Every structure is written in structure tokens, then in C-alpha cells.
Amino acid sequence: MEPRWLKDVCRRVLWLGCLLYVVFVSGPASAIDIHTDPEVIVQNGTTGVLQCTFKSSEVVTKSTTVTWSFQSNQPDHQYFKAPYVIYYFSNGQGYPANTEFKERVQFIGDINKKDASIQLSPAQFSDNGTFFCDVKNPPDVTGTQARTELRVVLKESLPQSSTVIIIWAVCGALFLLVVIAVAACFAIRVLHNRHDYEGAR
Asked: DSSP letter at 159?
């Protein structure tokens, strides 16, 4: 007959083994990581792209869902108090909500590439506000939805791109070099004429 202390030791070892299995093998569900642009600026009447990508340790399947919500920053807007779902993607199909976005929102991402982006066409001033992108990839469903601040502005208010600034800077530098070269040639010619005049004397 086994000693009692041996049974206690075996029971504790078994309990510890079960605990280690739960912690290190099964473990908690991993969190999904969602990314969007912090701010997007779009000209009124044009197409605005709202990018959303995600990282997940699980394989993307038909169970993967995408939810886009919108909350206006205009106090007189119907969606000012709380976010409202404007688009839902599930089982490979998109479902625009029956809102003012229904005819303007389109899914342009690729779930298999972990891209859940949408576009608004045309963008309107009433679209100013916060857009939320939420992705669930079962069993990877824990995560924080990403948010994008959309600013719809007039063409005159669009910020100049770095390329335009560089082009203007290069053109300005070239113009300055031409002015300096012309001034240098003029100064050399004046000095040369003065030298010829003094030599003639």
C-alpha cells in the first residue's frame, strides 16, 4: 500500500501540471491589432479613402467581420451623440447601413490580405467626424477598434504635399542662381569696360 505522503505529492504534481498546461498551452485569446490613419483630409466632392489594416495570429476565414461606424463632430448632426454603424462586412459580403452613407460607401479592402479599407464617394461636409474600424477574426476577437478623424474641406484649404513644396523650392533655387549668374556677368563686364577705358587713357 502506497504511503499517504506519496499520494499527496502525486496529487500536487498533477495539479501543477494542469495549471501549467492552462497557462502555457491553452493560454488566453490573443488580441487583434487594428491600424488606421489618425487623420484624413479630403476635398469636398471627391473620393475619400479610409484605410484600415489588422494583424491577427489566426487565419482569416468567412467568420471574419468588419464593422465601420461614424460619429459626427457637428452638434446638429443626427450621429453626434454616439457612433452609428454605416457598413458591415461578413461572410465575404458587404452590407451598407440604411443611412446617408448607403449609396456612397464601398468596401475596397481585401480581407485575405488583412485589409478592411473603405471609400466614400463623394465626400461631403457632413462627413466631418470620427470613423471607427473594428475587426473580429474568431477566435481572435479581443482588441481595440481603430479611429480616423476625417476632415472634408474646400480645395483651397487642402495642405500642399511635400512634393509640391520641394518643386517650388528647387524652382526658387534655380531662379536665384540665374539672378546671381546674370549679376556676376554684368559686374565682370562693367569691370572689364572700366579696365579698357583706363588702359586707353
From this structure: P
Residues 6-34 have pLDDT tens digits of 456 446 645 454 333 433 334 444 689 99
The Cα 155–Cα 133 span in angstroms is: 27
d(Cα 97, Cα 88) in Å, to the nearest integer?
A: 7
Spell out a b/e string for 60-86, using b for 16 or more CB atoms within 10 Å of the CB, else e: beeebbbbbbbbbeeeebebeeebbbb
**Identity of the residue numbered 117:** S
Give tens-digit pLDDT for 93-129. 999 998 899 999 999 999 999 999 999 999 999 999 9
Say yes or no to pLDDT of 183 above 50: yes
Whether residue 163 contacts residue 171, with contact meaning beta carbons closer than 8 Å, is answered with no
Judging by beta carbons within 10 Å of its beta carbon (0-12, 13-18, 19+), is residue 21 exposed, middle or buried? exposed
Q: For residues 52 and 23, is the Cβ–Cβ distance under 8 A?
A: no
